[in-house]
Amino acid sequence: MSDARAATIADKADRADRLGIQQPRLPRWAPLGIAAGAALLGVLTGVLADLGSRIQWGLIAAILFVVGQYVISTVVEGGRQAKDRLATSLVWVAFLLAVIPLASLIWETVSKGVKVTDGYFLTHSMSGVVNVAPGGGVYHALMGTIEQVLIATLIATPIGLLTAVYLVEYGRGALAKAVTFFVDVMTGIPSIVAGLFVLSLWIMILDFGYSGFAGALALAILMMPVVVRSTEEMLKLVPNELREASYALGVPKWKTILKVVLPTSLGGITTGVMLAVARITGETAPVLLLVFGSPAINNNPFDGGQASLPLYIYQQWGAGTEASFDRAWAAALVLIVFVMILNLLARGIARWKAPKTGH
Prior knowledge:
This protein is mainly alpha-helical. Helices cover 76% and strands 0% of the residues. It has 15 helices and no strands. Helix 10 (240-248) runs antiparallel to helix 11. It is flat and about 75 Å long. The two termini are 19 Å apart.
């Protein structure tokens, strides 16, 4: 919209306001008031109808909020504004429906995980401790997860990055189409399939033993397509004018990619890599097949079984005692905090490396 047109619309609005013909509007506090009334009616309906589930109360309140705001807006503001408020209220309801289960999950994990989460739990292993007995810690599993995820990242990131550069900058013809097809296929494969592939090739055919490295190979397979797709989209966002300016100065293509394209999209690439890392951190099936687990600390991912947080949670929950349940919830809390730190780190790096724009 041009400045002249915006000024014309503002002038017409001011003139309508002076003449007193402006369309009536609900006050700003109206949505909150309607939401409070809908919540009260939802609670009353749930109590009077003897509905035991609080979820039913919330759904009734959400329906009353949407319908009530639409009806009130239609009467006061007219049908056009009412439709706009209807769309807005549906968006808010959908947002709350998505956030409430997440918040409930976090609250449940935190409330049950803090029982045994302390310095001892974070610095000791399960060596000499039976799963059904109290005591022990998560240190060996945390170190195993860090090592396996780090190895998977070191394997998957260069391969995914170079693949994305090829598809965006060089990819033409049948080979590029084939690579794109296989990346799409790998994006949707279940994690158990990646674990079975590494199990059959690395352990059964090549006769290597169970180890953290074997689990890292499966995690790298799951991580690669995420890195390729996110990097590919970031590279496509780099303006072609930057490439053309570099070519006009006589800079070869490989150096343009290295010095112009990649630095410009580095923030988004880093975010994509971190999101891929967060995705593989909680994988249980490949670790269960390949890492084999260990109650003691094993800092060598290339020799013998090694613990990891997802496998530790699975084993502790399977033990079926109160002490093992507490350790499982505490390990789940540690895993959530670990993934959260990775996401915050990705956001920080993306903001730090984002291109500076002038005003």
